Amino acid sequence: MLDESNNWGRWGAADERGALNLLTPETVLAAAGSIREGRVLGLSLPIRGATSSPAPTTVPHLRGRPLPQHFMSVDGGDYAAGTRAIGAGLKMADDALVVTPHGTTTHMDALCHMWSGEELYNGHPAGRVRSYGAGRCGIDKAGPVVARGVFFDVPRIRGVERLEAADRIEPADLEACALDVRPGDAAVVRTGWPLAWRDGPDAYWAGQPGLSADAGRWLAERDVCLVASDNAAIGGLNARQLADEGLADDLHMILLWRHGIHLAEMLWLEELAESGRTDFLFVAAPLRIEGGTASPITPLAVL
Amino acid sequence: MLDESNNWGRWGAADERGALNLLTPETVLAAAGSIREGRVLGLSLPIRGATSSPAPTTVPHLRGRPLPQHFMSVDGGDYAAGTRAIGAGLKMADDALVVTPHGTTTHMDALCHMWSGEELYNGHPAGRVRSYGAGRCGIDKAGPVVARGVFFDVPRIRGVERLEAADRIEPADLEACALDVRPGDAAVVRTGWPLAWRDGPDAYWAGQPGLSADAGRWLAERDVCLVASDNAAIGGLNARQLADEGLADDLHMILLWRHGIHLAEMLWLEELAESGRTDFLFVAAPLRIEGGTASPITPLAVL
Amino acid sequence: MLDESNNWGRWGAADERGALNLLTPETVLAAAGSIREGRVLGLSLPIRGATSSPAPTTVPHLRGRPLPQHFMSVDGGDYAAGTRAIGAGLKMADDALVVTPHGTTTHMDALCHMWSGEELYNGHPAGRVRSYGAGRCGIDKAGPVVARGVFFDVPRIRGVERLEAADRIEPADLEACALDVRPGDAAVVRTGWPLAWRDGPDAYWAGQPGLSADAGRWLAERDVCLVASDNAAIGGLNARQLADEGLADDLHMILLWRHGIHLAEMLWLEELAESGRTDFLFVAAPLRIEGGTASPITPLAVL
Amino acid sequence: MLDESNNWGRWGAADERGALNLLTPETVLAAAGSIREGRVLGLSLPIRGATSSPAPTTVPHLRGRPLPQHFMSVDGGDYAAGTRAIGAGLKMADDALVVTPHGTTTHMDALCHMWSGEELYNGHPAGRVRSYGAGRCGIDKAGPVVARGVFFDVPRIRGVERLEAADRIEPADLEACALDVRPGDAAVVRTGWPLAWRDGPDAYWAGQPGLSADAGRWLAERDVCLVASDNAAIGGLNARQLADEGLADDLHMILLWRHGIHLAEMLWLEELAESGRTDFLFVAAPLRIEGGTASPITPLAVL
């Protein structure tokens, strides 16, 4: 039962929040200072339900993942067919969503999402991640990201529309963006890979560009609170949709597991790229799914 | 297929966005000016999966609604039982969520959620709301709310811990809050009703306090972009969990249907009440569920 | 509330049961007479959950359909990781299934599944088939099939391992099987098409063999109660997974809609083919899903 | 990929099928001999979807379990609202089901459902029951039950309409039924408890009557292949919906775990009771859910 100890307005304890501890009233106030135009961009892909139609195949996603399903439990069609209005004339539509965030839509990873050995980030026991949810480091512990966003538009730096599947982003690419990265910033990295979907699923599934291990370390050294990208795994993927790096160089291991840096994947960054802005207020507010390994999100860039 | 016309960073056309059209670069810049402390509060209830345990009964929800279900498709228990790590030692947890937002958790209503007659808000045909989603006025059209929040802490005004089930909030209560409400503000109204859950589900299900029709009109006249509350239906509910007002006085009809004012329900406002703050930056970023009647959200107050 | 009128042991009224009305105590007794060996064969594909693994792609299904999802809400891994046993030592596994039967697994169609114009089979209004289920002709009305099965092993007649995608079964094929078809029999028609999956999904998706319209009429004239096949749509499909026939010749229209003959699709008939038996007791017991358009089933052949 | 080794018409290996190994061609032929009238009764509760309506509360189920959800992905309402027919005029209804069988509807338990210590029935390692399903003793291994049913109508023996929550069925009750129980029979035990739902959920949830440990042993000694009942747990339950017996006397431990006797629960036996028949052909064909802990079923009594 709900009792005096509920404080749902706040987050998990510091030892389960990783790099989000870098967010302080001071960084929030500084980040708010990045709002200059007042425009708001959404950085998410649509969640397109796979039910009777082939429609979901028109949104980028990893091969073989269970796609989102969206169901209406009452809708306008029912009233057209004769369903009686409620009381004096109210009509309503109601629905349900089934979603498996990783690989299917824009989401933020929980710190329990990946690990090696017997321990999650910060030594939390991996055995606490069970069928009824993660007892440690779930997405409910993370809390929201309200931070200064810094935008690494790598295709722009390289003079291409988008990276190729085999491309890996190196520290030199990040340096070339000439951004003033500060502790607590949210690093937003564009590969342009969602544009590969224009050529069909097979083109998108041919692999994915992403950060090299060194680029991951470059970001970790700068104490960012989050790394967000428009690819599916921050690091690159091969055609079997797997990372090729060894354990020491795996991007999830470097960022999420060792440094507690949260990851957000499968963002849509095209309008942000068009804006020309490289710093802004970045906001991501994961659903407080207890014990969740991730949450679908609609990240925002307030320019 | 994804093509040149995708502009997922932006929202639906103006005629499907209702009062969110009141949000402009100017209001966003003004709202950002409400950030003074840099503290961030979450305004959502936890999403607690109903699977093997009775746990979900410990979070406020309407009687008889399908509760959220959260499933792990691989977890730490599997590795403890012998599942092999990926490649050189990676382990991962993955999960799925089934959620029916209305009545079960903190959510934002789409403009297609309620109507009367044959037309949705703004004359959109209700017959376009079908089994595969709302073709008009879905939550994917709304876009995010980045606005100045104004907080009506009604129990504080009335000198009580929380309102009673039969209480209705009148314009005088809102006036007594002495807030300077401006066009495009997000009105956040506290009833304290989630605290009734301390006494068990039956206490919570005995009815709900909420806005009176006149209070709804008071807010609509002030051109707020959104009304958010910690009750389940903005207006009050009787013990059968229904609104008692006629069509002309129903809060969803007044706010959502006639004025296109978005509604957010089942917020958790207790820490916000403790903060003493009455204006702040309010952010809500609904998932871009195509044709959705609502989205679960984690609204934020940046103080 | 459950009351005196519940008679869940029986089925829907005669006007919603179609050709299953042909099943009488006499036909059941006669069908039982087909049991000669006492062997029992299952005629269903496995239901393989699509969660973290690519496993479901190893079971035949139509392209683009939402695959079954199977989730464990508590399992042996949890106990291996430290979950406490119940009471003095009980441990349990519990799970959930999400299934969309058409096109993904062995199932039986309800009479509400397909129609033309404004009326379902037998003149029932199509407008009663709404978001909360089919008010008429749902699978809950059908009741079970306990009938004499007659087996048309068409590849055997044609001297091939399996039919090709463009093959259509003609009345002559059915005649060649030389079976004594009686009113109330369940006609089981083998195409061998699931074997195409050996060559991968694309081979299976290249189209499907099936009954021609004339063969459908041939069966309807003989008053069978059900037509079951190992293809996905009884009739043939083209490479876009659609039927090519016009309305008058569509197999679902001929059998399900005009004659109320139930259809069972995506059976697995390979061991039945090996058995050499052409008559047997056929049993299919659909789940009593209220208002369902189909039910997953495990049909049985008792030889 | 599907290959030569697929033999989906048959079941799991003998060491995962428990007492279903007692079913042989001889027992099947003998069971078929129990068909005398040719009438077929269904023994299942309806599966009533919990979506927008309170309807599911009208079907007996255990408190706090996730109720079935049934969604239409296209229906007659959509066509009434203007959805275009397929091709020359075909219309279709399609749907999806979410079901958690234990405690919510008529189902058959897999041998992996309950255990003690580190081993399932027959020494299979419990650690193989993981998030992606039971690698051992899943419901897909069981195969169907085609057996002689023997009916223990305990309320009739005791001269009551239904048993009370605290009643436990003793060997003397089973003896009083004066049935000739043979190896491989399916024992069907009526308590009448679903009738308690007439008085509302709270009456049903007050506890449940069921078999005593000695009655369980009485059945196990007679080598039945399955025990089916209209209560939720074969044994009795207290008001917290738990079994009170210690590990040695728990009905699931005695029957399922030690003897490999499959259990079917939450049957509807009222019409069977009215029939006056005590032997018949009993058929239950679980869905072949790979790694499932149970399957919803519609058991049949062929009288």
From TrEMBL, chains A, B, C, D:
It comes from the Bacteria. Gene3D superfamilies: Putative cyclase (3.50.30.50). InterPro entries: KFase/CYL (IPR007325), KFase_sf (IPR037175). This is Cyclase family protein. It comes from Actinomadura parmotrematis.
